[in-house]
Recover the amino acids of this structure.
C-alpha cells in the first residue's frame, strides 16, 4: 500500500518532463513503458474500469479518464481539438493525478501532454509486438503531427523498424518529421499520397486529426499481412479507416465499452467481433494467427495506459531534480479543525491589509 501524502505532493511540470525525456531518451523510456504496460494489461481484471467521461463542444472534446487498481487511483484530463494547430495551439494537451486509495489524498501531479505521446507510442508498440508480423521492417506513417515521432521511436524500440514512409496533407509537418527523425538514424521516404505511403509497408500507423469520418486509408490500398495501428479515430464522428478494411481484418481493442463509442468500429453494432488486447497479452486469446491476416489495433487510448505512465514517471523521478513539491493538501493538525487554518488574523494585521487594499 502506498502511504505518501503528508510531505506534499510530488509534481512534474512541463520543464521537468521535457528534461527527463530528453536526458533519459524517449525511445528508451517508451521501450521500458511497454514492459510496464504489459504487466498492467496482464492484471486487467483488477482495475476499476469505465468509458471515459467526454464533454463534446463545437471546437473539440474534453475528457476525464479515471481508474484504480485498489491501491492507487489516477485520472487524466485530456482535450482533443483538431483545428487547434491552425490557431497556434496543440491538438492534444493533458495533465494527470495519482492519489492513494486508503485515504484519498493526492500524491502526484504531472503534465501529460508529453507523457501522453510516450504512453500512446508505448501502447501502439505493445499492440504491434503481439499483432504485427515478426519480420516487419517498414512502417507507413499517415499523419506527421505531434504524436508521429514518438510512434516511430516506439516501433523502433520494440520491433526494430527504422524505415518510414510518411504522408501528411501538410508538407511542413512531413518536413518537420524528417528534420526530427533523420538525425536519429531513420531511413525516411516522403510519400505523395496515403496510397503511396503504404506501398511495401508492413505496419501502417494512422495518426491524423480531423473531426470527420475521413477515409485516410482506403481498403484497396491494404494488402494481406499488414498490421494497422489506427490511433487518430478516437471520438464519435472522428474515424480514419475505410469500413471495408475492418470487415476483412481481425480487430483488437482496449476496452470495448469505450471503443464501440469512440473507435473505428463505431460504424458497426455491438455484435461486431473484436478481441480485447489484454486477453492476447495474458494468453487467453490469439493475436495474429497467420502471415496474410490483416490486423487492426483500433486504439482510442484507455485510462489504464495513463495510470501506468503516471506511476512510471513518478517512480523514475523520485528524489531527482525533475520533480518539485506542491503544497496541495490542506492538513490542519486537528483533522476536524479546518477553520484553524483560516482563523482571522490579529486586528492590526487586518487593518494594515485593508488600508493597503484601499490605496490600490
Ligand atoms: N489513440 C490514442 O491513444 C491517441 C492518443 C493521442 C492522440 N490521439 C489522436 O491522434 C491524432 C493525432 O494527434 P496529434 O497530437 O499528432 O495531432 P496533430 O494535430 O499534431 O497532427 C495531426 C496531423 O494529421 C494531419 N492530417 C489531417 N488530416 C489528414 C489526412 N486526411 N491525411 C493525412 N494527414 C492528415 C495534419 O496535417 C496534422 O499534421 C489526433 O486525432 C488525436 O486525437 C490518439
Amino acid at each position: 500500500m502506498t502511504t505518501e501524502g503528508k510531505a506534499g505532493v510530488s509534481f512534474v511540470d512541463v520543464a521537468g518532463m521535457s528534461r527527463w525525456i530528453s536526458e533519459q531518451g524517449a525511445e528508451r523510456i517508451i521501450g521500458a513503458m511497454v514492459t510496464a504496460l504489459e504487466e498492467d494489461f496482464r492484471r486487467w481484471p483488477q482495475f476499476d474500469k469505465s468509458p471515459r467521461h467526454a464533454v463534446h463542444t463545437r471546437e473539440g472534446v474534453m475528457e476525464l479518464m479515471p481508474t484504480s487498481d485498489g491501491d492507487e487511483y489516477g485520472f487524466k484530463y485530456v482535450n482533443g481539438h483538431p483545428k487547434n494547430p491552425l490557431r497556434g495551439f496543440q491538438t492534444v494537451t493533458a495533465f494527470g493525478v495519482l492519489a492513494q486509495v486508503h485515504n484519498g489524498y493526492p500524491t502526484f501531479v504531472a503534465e501529460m501532454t508529453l507523457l501522453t505521446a510516450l504512453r500512446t507510442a508505448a501502447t501502439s508498440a505493445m499492440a504491434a509486438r503481439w499483432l504485427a508480423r515478426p519480420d516487419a521492417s517498414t512502417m507507413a506513417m499517415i499523419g506527421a503531427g505531434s504524436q508521429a515521432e514518438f510512434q516511430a521511436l516506439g516501433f523502433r524500440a520494440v520491433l526494430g523498424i527504422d524505415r518510414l514512409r510518411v504522408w501528411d496533407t501538410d508538407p511542413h509537418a512531413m518536413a518537420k518529421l524528417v528534420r526530427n527523425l533523420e538525425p536519429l538514424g531513420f531511413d525516411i521516404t516522403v510519400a505523395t499520397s496515403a496510397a503511396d505511403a503504404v506501398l511495401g509497408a508492413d505496419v501502417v500507423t494512422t495518426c491524423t486529426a480531423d473531426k470527420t469520418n475521413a477515409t485516410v486509408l482506403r481498403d484497396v490500398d491494404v494488402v494481406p499481412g499488414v498490421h494497422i495501428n489506427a490511433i487518430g479515430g478516437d471520438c464519435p464522428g472522428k474515424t480514419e479507416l475505410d469500413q471495408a478494411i475492418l470487415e476483412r481484418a481481425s480487430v483488437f481493442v482496449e476496452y470495448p465499452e469505450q471503443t464501440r463509442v469512440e473507435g473505428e468500429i463505431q460504424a458497426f453494432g455491438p455484435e461486431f467481433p473484436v478481441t480485447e488486447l489484454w486477453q492476447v497479452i495474458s494468453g487467453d486469446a490469439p493475436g495474429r494467427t497467420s502471415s496474410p491476416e490483416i490486423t487492426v489495433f483500433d486504439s482510442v487510448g484507455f485510462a489504464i495506459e495513463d495510470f501506468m505512465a503516471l506511476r512510471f514517471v513518478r517512480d523514475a523521478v523520485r528524489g531527482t531534480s525533475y520533480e518539485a513539491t506542491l503544497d496541495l493538501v490542506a492538513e490542519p493538525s486537528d483533522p476536524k479543525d479546518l477553520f484553524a487554518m483560516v482563523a482571522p488574523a490579529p486586528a492590526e494585521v487586518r487593518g494594515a491589509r485593508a488600508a493597503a487594499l484601499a490605496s490600490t
The two ends are 51 Å apart (CA to CA).
